[in-house]
Amino acid sequence: MASHSLWVFGYGSLCWYPGFEYRSSRIGHIKGFSRRFWQGNTTHRGVPGKPGRVATLVEDGETFTHGVAYELVGEAALSYLNGREVTLGGYTTLFTEFYPREGAAFPALLYVATPSSQHWLGNAPLHQIADQVVSSRGASGHNVEYVLRLAEFMHEHVPECRDEHLFQLEQLVRLRVKEARLCLRTLMGERAPSPVSSSEDEEVAPAAQRTTSFQFTSAVPAKKLRCLGV
Ligand code: SIN
User: Fold this and answer.
1) Is 85 in the pocket of ligand 1 (CB under 6 A)?
2) pLDDT given for residue 74 in this prediction
3) Where in this chain does the entry annotate a coiled-coil region (predicted)?
4) Beta carbon of 54 within 6 Å of any ligand 1 atom
């Protein structure tokens, strides 16, 4: 690692959607924090008055949180991240030690929300967090997508990750989606709504078409969504 490189540690959407140019990335962990869905979001995964829930970190002894560290290239990446995480997300920054799977630890910047954030929601029973996730969406897509893509990233790329908060929330969200017979593929932004859908269907642009993700420029109508035989 070049000592002049700036590394950013991602533990939420930055794991599966960095959205900026980087020179290299490493999977690993930080110590002393737990990942919690305690930060509200009214720009990317919710709207004003109906916030979604996104990840933040809370200090927690010697606990590990797994994620990805990115080596930034140029100023543009940092200004993109500050816009996405600080201006829109209500996060602040701090430096901590990052432990890659192999090699020596090095410092990394991370974005964290605290109770002083205007979007802070704080602790709640996990089933209530799941209900909020399943009923929230914003300019970047559905809140379900945020939770499930993060959990899937950990299952696939970080099998050593033992994050009960994330994985129990994943299970509750999957259960709620199934019970309500919602269309998971549409919630995940993987398909356009069916042309035979009833007027109850919402219109969520497929992920591939969401070129404005994290820029808060698209609007998603707030209607109920169901799978209609697909
Ligand atoms: C992160 O991913 O590191 C910060 C939280 C988020 O943007 O989801």
Assistant:
1) yes
2) 84
3) none
4) yes
* Mean pLDDT, rounded, for 126-148: 98
Domain span holding position 18: 2-194+212-219
Measured distance CA(41)–CA(50) in Å, rounded: 9
The CATH number for 7's domain is 3.10.490.10
Half-sphere exposure of 156 (CA within 13 A, CB side): 8
- Residue 204 in any domain: the answer is no
Average pLDDT, the chain: 86
85 is an active site residue: yes
- Please tell me the total count of domains within the chain: 1
Residue 167 has pLDDT above 70, yes or no: yes
- What's the pTM value of the predicted model, to 2 decimals? 0.85
Q: Is pLDDT of 53 > 70?
A: yes
Question: Pick the catalytic residue: 59, 62, 85, 156?
Answer: 85
